[in-house]
């Protein structure tokens, strides 16, 4: 089964964060844009912050589509394991706030 699942979590109750778990089949090297677009619609429809957990290829396509680029442009977003990425808006325009940032534990 694939798609977007909203996970009920303590983070929602305490921090106002919604957690999305994404399970998409990876077709070739990257998923297609039409697979990422419903994720983006769902994330934008949620009030507040959203945490998205997914395979790196999915996240790269998600970033490209967030910015209005074609899914194939996701190859331009280098992504290491266990990094943090923040997509946001700048004056109403989709933007990358932080990309491939190491996470400090």
Explain what this protein looks like in three dimensions.
The protein has 105 residues and is of the alpha+beta class. It has a single domain, classed as Rossmann fold, CATH 3.40.50.1240. 29% of the residues lie in helices and 33% in strands. The chain contains 3 helices and 5 strands; from the N terminus they run E-H-E-H-E-H-E-E. It has helices at 10-15, 33-45, 56-66, and strands at residues 3-7, 17-23, 49-53, 83-90, 93-102. The strands form 2 sheets. Strands 1-2-3 form a 3-stranded mixed sheet. Strands 4-5 form a two-stranded antiparallel ribbon. The model has no long low-confidence stretch (mean pLDDT 79).
Helix/strand layout:
Blueprint: E1 3-7, H1 10-15, E2 17-23, H2 33-45, E3 49-53, H3 56-66, E4 83-90, E5 93-102
Parallel strand pairs: 2-3
Antiparallel strand pairs: 1-2, 4-5
Helix pairs in contact: 2-3
What is the gyration radius calculated from CA atoms?
Answer: 13 Å
**Strand line-up across the major sheet:** 1-2-3
Count of distinct structural domains: 1
Unreliable segments of 5+ consecutive residues: none
Strand count, sense and barrel status of the largest sheet are:
3 strands, mixed
Structural class: alpha+beta
Q: What is the CATH top level name? A: Alpha Beta
Oligomeric category: single chain
CATH A-level architecture: 3-Layer(aba) Sandwich
Average residue-wise pLDDT: 79
The CATH topology assignment is Rossmann fold
How far apart the termini lie comes to 32 Å
**Tally of DSSP helical segments:** 3
């Amino acid at each position: 089964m694939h798609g977007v699942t909203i996970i009920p979590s303590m983070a929602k109750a305490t921090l106002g964060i919604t957690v999305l778990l994404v399970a998409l089949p990876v077709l070739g090297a990257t998923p297609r844009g039409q697979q990422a677009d419903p994720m983006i619609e769902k994330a934008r429809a949620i009030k507040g912050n959203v945490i998205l957990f997914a395979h790196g290829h999915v996240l790269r396509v998600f970033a490209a589509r967030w910015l209005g680029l074609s899914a194939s442009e996701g190859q331009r977003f280098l992504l290491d394991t266990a990094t943090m990425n923040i997509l946001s808006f700048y004056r109403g325009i989709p933007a990358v706030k932080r990309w491939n940032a190491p996470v400090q534990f």
